[in-house]
Amino acid sequence: MLTCKDLRISQGDFVLAADVAFPKAGVTAIIGASGAGKSTLLLAIAGFVAVASGDVAHGDPFTDAAPGKRPVSMLFQDNNLFPHLSIGDNVALGLPKLGDASVVADVLACVGLSGMEGRKPAALSGGQQSRAALARLLLAERQIVLLDEPFAALGPGLKDEMLDLMRTVLVEQMGATVLMITHDPDDARRVADHVAWVADGRVNVPRPTAEIFADPPAGLRAYMGQMG
Amino acid sequence: MAQRAVAINPTKPGAIAVGLVVFLTLGTLAAVAWRADFARGLGPADWAAIQFTVAQALVSATLSCLLAIPVARALARRQFCGRGLLVTLLGAPFLLPVIVAVLGLLAVFGRNGVLNGVLDALGLPAVSIYGFHGVVLAHVFFNLPLVTRLILQGWVSIPSERFRLAASLNAPIGRLLEWPMLRSVLPSAFLVVFLICLTSFAVALTLGGGPRATTVELAIYQALRFDFDLGRAAMLAMIQFGLCLIAAALVWRISVVDGLGAGLDRHVQRWDGSPAVDYLIITICAFFLMLPMVMVVLRGLPGLFDLPADIWRAALRSVIVALISAGLCIALTLSLALRGGWGVGLVGVLPLAASSLVVGTGLFLLIYPFANPAKLALVVTAFVNAVLALPFALRSVAPAVDRITADFGRLGASLDLSMWVWTTRIVLPRLRRPLGFAAGLAAALSMGDLGVIALFAGDAQETLPLAMYRLMGAYRMEAASGAALILLALSFALFWICDRGGRIDADL
User: If you compute the radius of gyration of chain B from its CA atoms, what whole number of angstroms results?
Assistant: First the structure.
């Protein structure tokens, strides 16, 4: 289980507090208005934003570890593939030891990209690029996966397909704990087991998806009203 | 937190590069200061050199800027066949060996040049290119294209929608759109040209000289080479550094627009101005810039058969020095760019304040007690040229490194890439274009250098520009023209090979 214990993150005047545990081997959707601190939370867990106090732990605490030394993989909104490297080389960067590339073809097959090892990212569609990034997460085999809206730029149909694939390969095959930022409650309804509402400088305790949407807190209700 | 990925902060190479640059700029300056003969004070000749240096730099920079405005505006307003080539050629004088350009200018404006031929045919008195106006003419020749490119970049960066809006409103484009752009671009362009002219040595050496047309750099050279007056040379070097420091600090303060970059081929449709006037301006400018080069080629071809035998050895020396210098410059540039930070950025512009003659004087003072400086002339030249090209190389490479860090730094860190993998697999392949350009620039600048080498070299260390200068001094103008043609070809070939090498298969 991923826990944030008495975590405080300060960025100028903005302070985000989190004292929560994210259920293991499942998807937790992080929902909140723009500027609520969703990305800040994920960047702090990944080690890209310094925390003022508190601990992040997955069994053992890793608050002070360098980003690459944490049990965490992250997909960003864009720039998830190096454009000058082939898809095979991009995926192979997820290997603990470079050079052991025999498994690359297998993970590419897992995400439906068989035979595309030699292509450059620019030769692939947006959906295929997202699949390649997912394949690298599979290879890295880190137990916590943070998704900062990596599928936001895809069209609705393709996005649903990627969300389903993400759940299949990361949760059902790998058993990873996934934290997924989304602006769209429908994304959460589709793939998330739990939802954590971020508002007023606080990350609220994750609640089961069906339960939170059946009886949303006032802020989330207003937010969903704005979303139409 | 906008922190840089840990993996791409190589500290050791960065520290070595900083140490080398600081030694060659401030270290040599300290050596100069230690030997400077301040007690003697400045003589009338020294004051004259300071006044001449500042005056010619002011006039050259002013004229370059004033003349560049109509040229850049004409190029911005008109679209014609060959415009792209002309804009590319505007970048050529930056790579052109100074001594070659001077020979070209002599072929047009010299005693036996084209202009005096025409004046003689019309029965008018001849003009002389030597002295203040000759130095200014040469500096305008070099810097008019540079300023034109800087201003043109400002012009084409004004969104076309604004021109459309201004045209539809019949609003004054000059006051509304052009003046604000010029106000932001011209001060930095003026200062860059002023700085370049302050440190000009080869132009003053060939077209100046004498008590009334000596720059401080030339005075340093004369004090060392002819009088062997180390104290006076050191004092003049301190003055030169002071002048350059003030100008470089101003350049650093006013962010310089990158005139070597891309985007100049963009054309914004305009509805103002007279096409006839614009094309006339473009033609005059092209003629002014092209004719000396055409003359170098025309006079150089027969000169190829009149070359002394050792010219090829000099050419080989120059190529080797240029390649070593380019390699060193790239190593320094990469070390500093990957290290990043404002302190490193400051070190990167330090060479702008250091003239090659000041650095050369310092090294001469440091080497002289232990060894014959002539024997180390080529090594010293390679190092000094590498450091002097550093600000330009860094301007090309550092923004690309910053972009890679901004785009992929977090991804690289989250993948736990080692420094080696990050540098060799991610950074270097994405830096091929700017690195190729920077290497070409450094090689071409070193190839044409006639600064430190003139101070140090004996006959056995003669490079091609020095051999050419000595041929000119011996009035063997035909042979000098032949050498100029070889120097021109080698300089552009080195630049082209490096720049092209960076572009092949660079899918960025």
Answer: 23
Which of A49, A68, A85 is the closest to B413 by Cβ? A68
**CB-CB: which of A76, A85, A120 is closest to B410?**
A76
| Separation between Cα atoms, residue B461 and residue B381, nearest integer Å | 10
> Measured between CA atoms, how close is B379 to chain A, in angstroms?
37
Smallest Cβ distance to B426: which of A50, A68, A82?
Answer: A82
* Model-level ipTM above the cut of 0.85: no
Residues of B in contact with A47 (CB under 8 A): 413-414
pLDDT in tens, B371-422: 888 888 899 999 999 998 998 888 888 888 888 988 898 999 888 888 888 8
pTM of model > 0.90: no
Residue B454: predicted pLDDT? 85
Phi, psi angle pair for B298, to nearest 5°: -60, -45
B247's CB contacts (< 8 A; 6+ apart) are B191, B194, B195, B198, B353
CB within 8 Å of B294: residues ≥ 6 apart = none
DSSP letters spanning B363-423: HHHHHTTTS-GGGGHHHHHHHHHHHHHHHHHHHHHHHHHHHHHHHHHHHHHHTT--HHHII
Domains of chain B by start residue, with CATH: 1-35+307-508 (1.10.3720.10), 44-258+274-296 (1.10.3720.10)
| B377-414 helix and B311-339 helix, angle to the nearest 10 degrees | 30
- Rounded to whole angstroms, the Cα distance separating B405 from B4 reads 7
Q: Residue B484's Cα: distance from chain center in Å?
A: 18
